Amino acid sequence: MKKGDNIVFFSGKKLNQSLVNFVFKVIPLALALTFTVSVQAELILEKKRPNVIIIYTDDQGSIDMNAYGATDLVTPHMDSLAKDGIRFTQFYSAAPVCSPSRAAMLSGKTPQRAGVPGNVSSMEGVPGMPTEQVLMPEIFKRAGYRTAHIGKWHLGYTPETMPNGQGFDESYGHMGGCIDNYSHFFYWNGPNRHDLWRNGSEIWEDGQYFPQRMAEEARSFMEKNGDQPFFMYWAINLPHYPMQGISKWREVYRDLPEPRRQYAAFVSTMDEMIGSLLGAVDDLGLRENTIVVFQSDHGHSTEVRGFSGGGSAGGLRGAKFSLFEGGIRVPALIRWPGHIPAGEVRDQFTVSVDWYPTLAELCGIDLDQMNLKLDGKSIVSVLNSAEACTPHETFHWQSGGGNNNPQWAVRNGSWKLIGNPIDTSAPGGWGRPGKFFLVNLAEDPNETTDVSEMHPNRLRQMVQMHSNWIDSLE
Ligand SMILES: [Ca+2]
After folding, report:
1. pTM of this prediction?
2. Is 154 a catalytic residue?
3. Ligand 1 centroid vs 133 CA: distance in angstroms?
4. Which of 44, 152, 202, 428 has the most CB atoms within 10 Å of its CB?
């Protein structure tokens, strides 16, 4: 029944009894039925809305998974996501370090526009991600989802910038950059302090293995919320140092050389925890109606706390902190059985900021009226076809250094220019190879040779692109 029908009936001057009956009995009944049907339809629609799980790993190298080419690691559960979903080969993090990478993914904006250009403090009482940003959990919450943060945060350590202040209904984990996985004390510098929280209150779980606890929390959240669509951000703090893999995996890798041995044990421990989560998804009958996204926050670490690097970017140059490919090109996967292709590979240029509009589109959440000004673009067309165009002709990065010669990069098509490059994978210590590093990735994917002197016009053009982008931020 159309809305206008009522007006026609009520505007009639002579109403006979059957018409009166129709107006006062049939219409209300029809309206009531319509209402019931539409409410039921809404409930059904709501039930059918897919759940979202984002598994965001920490300092996992570009190829540290069998599906990406590692031959010395055991990673069946991560590989299963590639087998049952889509694997990306040119997927970038928006930053080569923890906080800005997370801020960009959760806000759909470059770290500069999200207000988190560098790592935020791991000290209680210091704010992080500006609260005026509308994060992905906030838009899912508005759409009727139950939202959870599990694991690492590293985006602010004040009540309003901790997860419950930024759109998460539930939060379990640590607020700073890294912890010891048994004592849950901050593991970077002193003063040594405890860092484990549930919904904004400090909790103590002395001696309990944090990776296992995260997997249990994830299962328990899904058990409680299986009837309502949920959005879960599992910021798993592995394989970030300290390297604390379980003894079973340390034994498996005992013959690998250091530091790969300890890193490998931690990667397989992480894989086992991911397997536990995926098992819970299956046990609860949620497999078909749950989108699982997987991504590393940036490249592997070559810091001394990680034994100067057990991770691998394969042939790619660079690591964590570097804008060479090994710092920002990351393993990334998405699975949604029956809805997106299984076992396929996508080579298009895609970026972590794309998850926000992509997941919103897949879940039927309309962002058009929200004036969000995202840098991310929906990659639903890329999911559907290996032939679809990349939505990013150009993307920009800037990292570290403040206003004093920060490292920056711009990729335009297959060309990439890095300004003030830092090579954190250089043998013998971190290197600074010149002022500019220009490369055509189609010809030199491992960024072996700077060709800026051979292509002065392109160099000039791309420096200008960067400068225009910086101007656009102000
Ligand atoms: Ca990290």
Report:
1. 0.90
2. yes
3. 21
4. 152
Which position among 98, 149, 300, 396 bears the catalytic label? 98
Q: Which helix (H) or strand (E) holds 246?
A: none
Distance 396 CA to ligand 1 centre (A): 19
Under DSSP, is residue 248 helix (H, G, I), strand (E, B) or coil? helix
Task: Give pLDDT tens digits along the chain (474 positions).
Answer: 333 333 322 233 333 444 444 444 444 444 444 444 444 444 445 457 999 999 999 999 999 999 999 999 999 999 999 999 999 999 999 999 999 999 999 999 999 999 999 999 999 999 999 999 999 999 999 999 999 999 999 999 999 999 999 999 999 999 999 999 999 999 998 889 999 999 999 999 999 999 999 999 999 999 998 789 999 999 999 999 999 999 999 999 999 999 999 999 999 999 999 999 999 999 999 999 999 999 999 999 999 998 888 999 999 999 999 999 999 999 999 999 999 999 999 999 999 999 999 999 999 999 999 999 999 999 999 999 999 999 999 999 999 766 678 999 999 999 999 999 999 998 877 888 889 999 999 999 999 999 999 999 999 999 999 999 999 997
Q: How many CB atoms lie within 10 A of CB 18?
A: 9
Specify whether 392 is catalytic: no
CA pair distance 49, 42, nearest whole angstrom? 10
Active-site position among 77, 154, 174, 298: 154
Q: Which structural domains are found in the chain, ordered by start?
A: 5-44 (no CATH), 50-384 (3.40.720.10), 394-473 (3.30.1120.10)
Q: How far is the CA of 298 from the centre of ligand 1 (A)?
A: 6
- Whether the Cβ atoms of residue 40 and residue 11 lie closer than 8 Å to each other: no
> CB under 8 Å, gap of 24 or more: what pairs does 443-448 form?
443/414, 445/315, 445/316, 445/325, 446/315, 446/316, 446/317, 446/325, 447/316, 447/317, 447/318, 447/324, 447/325, 447/416, 448/317
CA distances from 67 to 61, 79, 80, 89 (A): 13, 5, 9, 11
